[in-house]
Amino acid sequence: MSDFQTAVCIPTADRPETLERLILNLVEQSLPPDYIMVVDASRTDQTEIVCQRLIQHFPSGCLRYERSDRGLTLQRRRGIDLLRRMGNISYVCMLDDDVLLAPDFLGKIVCFLTSNQGTRYGGVAGYEMVKSGQHFEHLEEIYNCLGIFDGELRPGRWLYCGEWLELSRLQPTDGIYSTEFLPGGLTVWRMAVFDRFLPPAQLTGFRGAEDKHLSLRVATVFRLGILGEARCWHYHVPGGPRLNKFMTAYGLMRNKAIILRDCDPNPTARRYLAFLGFNLLHLTVRLFVMVARIELHQVPDFLGSLLGWAHCLLIPPKPTGDALGV
Hints:
alpha/beta; Spore Coat Polysaccharide Biosynthesis Protein SpsA, Chain A; nine-stranded mixed β-sheet
């Protein structure tokens, strides 16, 4: 037995087929996980049936099933809490249920984390092959020319105007690529990280922010990075633990404001007004593009973002108990 143990935590909801595919994919890992924790918020028992059927592929006690209320952040916290109680796990791989991994994914990341260079890293994500290496859009380039992005257009930056330069812009790379945030569903974390930091409870139920909030807090102690050789595929299957488009967009805008209040190293009213101003500008541009292209499917997302912006304007969120320095 090795000196460390690894666990995989998978939040899921109403996607038994994709979950089964991922669990069978984990069987093929060159470094198989010691534990797999499935945290299920499905409306039926189909996911539990899948897990019961797949138990035979693993040693006794390896594949574990837990029911949970719905909400991606809530389910991740539940899985982490259960794994922490086991007391002998060194690394936790957080995976969305619609992910597939190269056979050496876990082996390469854990090997890096145990190396001399890797000891400085609190979390390492794999390189996502789906939608990877995309060029920056013209709008992002225009914002950069206007000075909104501080003159450095590179993937993995958090900007105090409330935007993220997404990691899908990262070109194929070898070795480690340092970044300011990590994707929640493709990352291996040191268990020691969760002795001090957890996905923030106040962001529970909403997509696209709790992983970034967690990353910014972890980065005060550890480095974060993308390991180019650890390849994975994230298919973004519709459904799952996330809410509908309207509520997801509303929550994302709200959570951007929470992150700004929690993690901005220079919190001032002026910077919060800059956040509101940039997002109003971005919403205006989105409206013109949506109308010009007659993209009616974007209406719920746009309206959710607009309501979230109005919430941030009229009722600015207070810093949470998960803020830096709290």
